[in-house]
């Protein structure tokens, strides 16, 4: 993530660029608009300058230095350049630059067209020496290329027998009369809807862009174009975040399932959409499929992803890879060892693997499963539900996918118990670069307290979930978690270097009290140890003190600990757990109040920093807060807020765009990614279905966004361009948010929250250090049970010592009771009575499942 990599032109440029005549007399009155981006290379990055075959770009000492392989015939056989440069017909431009060469040689500076037929505008040859010189020439454009068009400037460096290095700096093309920027090339609608669908029985709202101050008549049409509903819009006025004047359309009263509906006002019509729960149920699995696509160290097989997305394993020490099996620390660290860090997920569009990003992403997948087992329906994630190699191993597939990253996190643990912050290439690679073709050396960055606590938290969480699946693996995880937590306590302020951003993002985090709270919460929920309890209750983050509308992310993880303490049984006072749950409802109410005043409703606080890098992940993480508020209270308003959020992400936004690839008629395609790079190389695929774009970023932190989006309103600061990495990259910790929310929404799809098909009554008599419990199981569904398995967790120190009418077992606090041969058949409306004697103290369990589904408590 946050990669700053050069953009590679897939096609070769033809000699026509050198054949064009030099125009020296330009039109008068040209303005001094700079047309080239990042011409000074002061940021240390080359982007958006690309390099052609046989050329490698590196920014060194503030210059872009191109290492050119010798033996080429023509000047245009070796190229560096920049695409998307705007030119206007008849306008004058001055092309200037500094340049030098290790060995003196001629080069050609050219302007022209980047795609067939490769028309030229102007070119001129210059003789380079070993000393830096300034070169300038002026021309008049004979072609017209708008922003994001096919205009290009390039340097032709070939035609030399020997290898050479050419360095350029202060590259500038000044001229034209139209100011660049302010353009998003995607068409927008005036009637904005969720491009995918609305779930029957839930609110259905759209946004009309209109300056009218009176209600407007809307019409809902089916796929045949027949009007099926009509009504009046509600004017809301100017919406500062989008820059639009808007009305709200509410067509919730229409609830007939179908496909191809459109909503229209006058002559303006929306993109088509469905009324169906099916799309969100597909998205639950497509969003999880993203993680298999991102796996490192294993082939991505066609039987799971199709031929288009299959590829060989990356970074397994097969040339040209240098491999992840024996990775040293960065040279300046001199750690004295190497680590085998094969596996894990590539973090984003580059080939880096980061513990703090992978940590929250793995946690979010694991929490999705744990939440489903505690208060939802875990059957949606059972073995065989995902298209992954482990789909028949008897383990829930969601846990299998998370384990791919958890195992990598374990490998990042240093001998002293600390965890290395990240592992990635020594330098940024070009777009595109398939993982198996990455020839860069791989390096471990220093260990950090934040990374170590991520490891401790996720390993403890995973240990809890694997305890009843693989006791040996669970014990291994817990040992690693304890070791990491101890190491972090001994090194409480080892902060990742904020300047370690070459070849991978820095991800420095100067405040780690939140990570300490999170890790202590996970360890306490898993072990019940008083040491961890003390750290939890003494933390300034205790009882959701840090939960606000800003939500959580890789650098702010305290709410993750709150979620675990609210869901997983533990020995905390019931009032404290209730306070945590109440905080989620309080913040959720704040989101709903703010969303009610928005033209395009999304749970996002833009009051301080505007829309930031990865804003869509923040929106979806806040939707998780809304979802949990619904889990904790049952209030329908929070459920509806989650679906409103998904409508924003899937198209009800001012760009009429679904930020999820493969979902909607105008969906993100050109993610910043080195393999899903169809925009640069037509032989490569677009982003696969279920991949989430980072979303609007009003800071415009990459050259493509700066060129195209100058002056954009906050929610419109986005473009579907592979080079726009600050708005259109993908990342594991963004897709994990989409996976959590879409999984929750799929479970809740329908006219209301799913009605439980089971009811459990629990009564217990107690004495000093014991209890005797009677448990009543009732089938409230419409289908007979052929067998049943009851699950619950003790909140205290209780242990089952003897039971009857079931096979009883207990692991930690988790208890299961499985039917006997004579009472497994339970028809609808029938009840089974079971019970047990136990020791220990604590309150009654608060959640029960039968056959993995949450039950009503009698």
Automatic annotation (TrEMBL):
Residues 751-858 form the CBM2 domain. The keyword Signal applies. It catalyses: Endohydrolysis of (1->4)-beta-D-glucosidic linkages in cellulose, lichenin and cereal beta-D-glucans. Its EC number is 3.2.1.4. It comes from the Bacteria. GO terms for molecular function: hydrolase activity. PROSITE patterns: CBM2 (PS51173), GH9_3 (PS00698). InterPro entries: 6-hairpin_glycosidase_sf, 6hp_glycosidase-like_sf, CBD2, CBM2/CBM3_carb-bd_dom_sf, CBM2_carb-bd_dom_sf, Cellulase_Ig-like, CenC_carb-bd, Galactose-bd-like_sf. The keyword Hydrolase applies. The active site is at residues 720, 729. Keywords: Carbohydrate metabolism, Cellulose degradation, Glycosidase, Hydrolase, Polysaccharide degradation, Signal. Residues 1-30 form the signal peptide. Belongs to the glycosyl hydrolase 9 (cellulase E) family. This is Endoglucanase. It comes from Lentzea sokolovensis.
